User: Fold these one by one.
Assistant:
Number 1:
Amino acid sequence: MKNPWDWTEEDLLALVKNQVQESLTLDYKASKALERTEKVKDEITKDVSALANSAGGTLVYGIPENKQTRLAEKVDEGVDPAVITREWLDQVITSNIQRRIDGVRINQIPLITVSPGRVAYVVHVPQSARAPHQARDKLFYKRFEYHSKPMEEYEIRDVARRQDAPDLRVRFQMDWTRRTTTAPNETWWTIALVNSSPIPCSEAVIDLQFESSFKLRHRGPLTASHHTMIDGEKGTIPFVSCRLFWSAKGGIPTFDGCPVAVSPQLFSIDHNQLRDGQYLIKWKVSAPRTTPKEAWTYYRLTHSKDSTEFGFWHEDLTEEQALALPDIRWFKNEVITTEWC
């Protein structure tokens, strides 16, 4: 999937159509949240600094959310780009948050079909290795349950120690160079270890859980260690658990700006073997001098008459958010096959 700084109006509409829910790293805001007032400046710096102090993420100005479901409701009327300029928004962020956050990207998106002449804004904020960052009201914020909340004193100290240890995450990245006309339905991808800290990491253990129905055609070194089930009100989802061991082995470790592939072999899936929908994946990474970190993501596949849309979601989800996603296959009163092939 595209990076937020490359999104277009079509991508905003897809967030609404696909019922993408807010998360720790995705925050929807109506366009009226961008006004040239002092109160709005406070809110912008609070939300941006909260993302930088937490896991990073994306603010979307131009999509109001449903307060109960936290789903994207619609792409609204946007703002006048002559009044709310990209430069003004950048100035609010860079001049009113201490310390300055590196790597913030602002994407101005013309609303060509929804509201011609007006724009939406997408602000992508990386997790900061220079945290904690202070908002305009002199407080430090974090992301918690869809909101920006003031941090406790001990949380501020914990974030300040972020530069003292690796900060690891797992990402699933498509390899477009391997697609061929002879096998157009087969897609290749790799598992990458990303470190947001300047402190290098030379070895790690990655635990993965794939939905059993997410069939891999080429699985590289992945082997099923055991099978698990997640039960919910809608039924049961079977998962396959795998483990990968990664070591730099005298080579280049992973550090900020230098992700590494955890396996020299690529993985592939055949879309002919999958139904349309979303396939859940859970990852957990453990390494020396770090606290184990885990999150959920998913692979989405959608066929239409003229095209096929697919790819990995780039944001981290909690288990609650992952299990609330639409188009997940729950088994109910069915015989469940845990074979993974």
Note: Helices lie at 9-17, 38-53, 86-96, 153-160, 319-323.
Number 2:
Amino acid sequence: MNLDDWRSRINDLDNQILNLLNKRAEAALEIGDLKRRQELPAYAPEREAEILARLVARSDGPLTADAIRAIWREILSGCRALEHPLTVGYLGPPATFTHQAALQQFGASVEYRPARSIADVFDEVERGRAHFGVVPVENTTEGAVNVTLDRLIDTDAVITGELSLPIAQHLLSRAEGLADVKLVVSHPQALAQCRRWLADHLPDVPTQEMASTAAAAELAAGDAAVAAIASDLAARLYGVPVLRPRIEDNPHNATRFLVLGRHPAGPSGRDKTSILFVMRNQPGALHDILEPFARRGLNLTKIESRPARRPPWEYVIFVDFEGHRDTPVVASALAEIGDRALFLKVLGSYPAG
């Protein structure tokens, strides 16, 4: 076959794919109608996780697993929008890393609502102005995002998903070269993640903290003497050239994000559960609370402490572990931990990212 023959073959395949996609969309409309009549949520994260896992396992290539997930993410997003349009809040303005994470989780067929702060994202979900919210919770370089942990203590929202996003920091500027940069601006965490590079390459240039990396890119777009540390998405959105790519000190830099919602996610077969608890101030208290996990073979993936607001010098412990709260083994462990802790809150069970 020559090139024209292969192109004709591609056209035929595209037509078949389009017909099948429209048939899938028609099925999604019927499912949306059934969900409305049964008062079920339009977005079922456990179902979408199961679809992606099944398709990746079924594929013999040559498409990679990441390519399959990216393609079907947009298919799911488009069909979901036919069932019921979703509104998703995130830490704005547009082109922040949180915006990138939200796009990776929900796809393009969603109404995205930028918020001024992480606390505002929680408020959007709690007050029903957004169906879901996306917030950062920890970074491999800078550690926990404390404002997110603090809001999880009191929120009525539940965790319905998680994802990890590699963080590639770029120096964006309209300057001709590094010698022309007079000020570097970015979010405090982005500045911290590039501290060594800045000391080596721009040691005498002052830095200024901004509310977000996107706000920094917007400032750099209007002043050639200013350089911003931000993402390639911010570079494209605000039209600022990348003066130096990949300036993060840690090449494995990544941020974990949580998806917040108002309805718990069901079991997907590969889940995590997040809890917090307050324990008695006595020897062996932490061991006693964690012992039910070990006895049942439940793997802990994270443990973090935060000072309690009151009384002073007491702490809230955050724990993530593998499993879903609706399974018997996890339910029995949580019941036992609840009896041993002063306070226990299940923040959510959700498909593992």
Note: The chain has a mean pLDDT of 94.
